[in-house]
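Hi C.,

You asked whether I'd gotten around to modeling the 708-residue construct. I have! Everything is below, sequence then structure, no commentary in between.
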Amino acid sequence: MTAVLGAVGAGMANEVGKRGLETAGGLVRRIAGREVTAPANPDEVAAVARIVYDGVHRDQALARAWNAFARSVPLSGAGTSVAAARPEPPPSVRFFTDRDDAMKTLDREASRAADGRPRIALVHGAPGMGTSALAVHWGGKRAAKWFPDGHVHVDLRGFSAGTALDGSTALRAVLRKLGVPEEEVPPTAEDRVGLLRRLVADRRLLMVLDHAYSAAQVRPLLTSAPGVFVLVVAANVLPGLDAVRVPVGPLAKRDAVRLLTAITGKEEVSRARAALPAVLARCGGSPFALRAAALRLTDEAAAPVAPAQGPSDAAPEPVRTAAEDAYRSLDPATARLYRLMSLQPWPAIGPVAASWIGETDAAEAERRLDQLLAVHLLELTDGGRYFYRPGVRRHAEDTAHREDRVAGCAGAVSRAVAGHLELAVRAANAALPESWRVPQPPTGPARISYASRAEGIEALVAERGNLLQAVHAAQEFGDFTTVVRLGQALWPLQLKAGHHDELLPVIRLAADTADAHFPDTRAAGALHAQLAHTFIELARYDEAATAARASAAAELAAGHARGHASAVEMLGLLRLRQWRYDEAYECFDEAGRIYDTIGPGGEGERDLPRARALLERHRGRALRGLGRREEARERLNGALRYFRDTREAYNTARTLTDLAETGIDSGDPAGALPLIDEAVTALAAEGASYHLAHLRSLRQSCLDQLDA
């Protein structure tokens, strides 16, 4: 019983889990004979399981009801549809030399007999020394024989405290690499840890955690599974991480020459013999710097380049020196783009964003990006976008401050933020055209447009990292209107695509900004509602309640009845999630009374029939949880009539599902079957795979009960 309840809670990131949680709430209330709040931690899960255990042993009918429910819950919780696919490593560099001692150390740790100690190694070295290349090369060349179940490689982005993924987001990244669909990643960090450990318990797997920032960031990802080897890559030793240390230093002169020779050929190295000592000195044994220098090797004797400018007491930095060498080879327009793109830590830049920054068209921007890629000033993501190495970005940023001055730098960031705001608002309106929460796009010709809901969502998902950074940039520049508008434009991304833990810091920042600069406005109310929604999805219920109340207060102060009712309705949905059905019903009734204040011609009047139908459905769900099933059917049938008449397939199917589940609760599986079949038909063209999976599970449960 503890396992069933735990699996229901862990799986509520998708439709199946949420419906299972709602069904469990009503059943637990029926078994206990009183209200029982949804458990929020393992101790509370155990306490509710004890209530269920005692109740079903007193009543055979309750025991049968619990068994029917328990059979429909996959005890592995979230991640039940994970395929047995073998995750593949990223490609290694073509030319690799030396590092024999480091690779032997990794061999020993990977091959030692399991003795209860986790296999963990920390590869660490200064930027540009090839720590990531070593991990990838060893994983691809040497590790396959020990880890036949795959190679998970995740970039933790630990270049600074501001860019590093937090532990919960890092867990999601690892689970996604292991094949867990986005909709099945558990909402809480604790459940993600549990799922990760279940998934890898019996697998022989290499996990590379690249660009780690701290032991705290890495610790949730560690496992004692005997077949798993965790290879952490960092710029420095990470205090508090108990791991075999594998230092990576500069290449010896002989190995540096070997690398240059492998890249350029013996004849090229021979022609540059006179300049070779200076090249090796500037590169400082850095594989990155040597690869960059190889592009200009034969030019070195004729035009030696001075070291990059920097503090007079600073030691030479090979990455910076290599960046300076490459920078001096650029044409002025490409050099300007290189500088100006670096002024914010954009996760990855495409041609469109580069065109805003460089004040050119996308085709020309792409040509310049490719030039920067060719001289190793930019790297390429798997998705075909461009990004800086941290050391290269620091060089570009310093150079921009020196050459473009305050006005040029500020203008570039402002153009980037304005472009991302227009992208976000236009994509949000395409993705959710009926939503009054989404800000309206700017007037005038559109620089970018989206033809469908799907295109809008795809753009928001693809650009989310840059959109989040744009919020921070706008805050830094004191552009508080843009902070608020960007935050509101993320609503369809929250509602349709999740990413709640990733979005939470920015939604909180936007809500705080609205409170500070635009208090008691619709914008403040909308952002607190978004915050409440995210907290609900992350199972942080106390914070969700606070945010929902703040939303209601702001909307009331702004005189926005539609927003006020919606905020109260959201508080009711929270109470449903918590199994507090009396309070949920009261919230839905209050929201209905607020809607009643919208008179003829009032703002939101056209939306009232749909809003009231949704409230009727929510009232029916609350009544079902209270065990008042006939009243629940009445409310649900009222909502169903509206959704059928307006041909809203998705809400029609959801309401039919509510009615079917109410029938199953009443012991009428035969009556539930046609409702389930109609819901499946309604969803046939919607692509709602997780809702369909729940319906199929419900149908099988009905058939099992009829056969019993």
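If it helps when you're writing up: The CA atoms of residues 257 and 549 lie 67 Å apart.

Thanks,
B.
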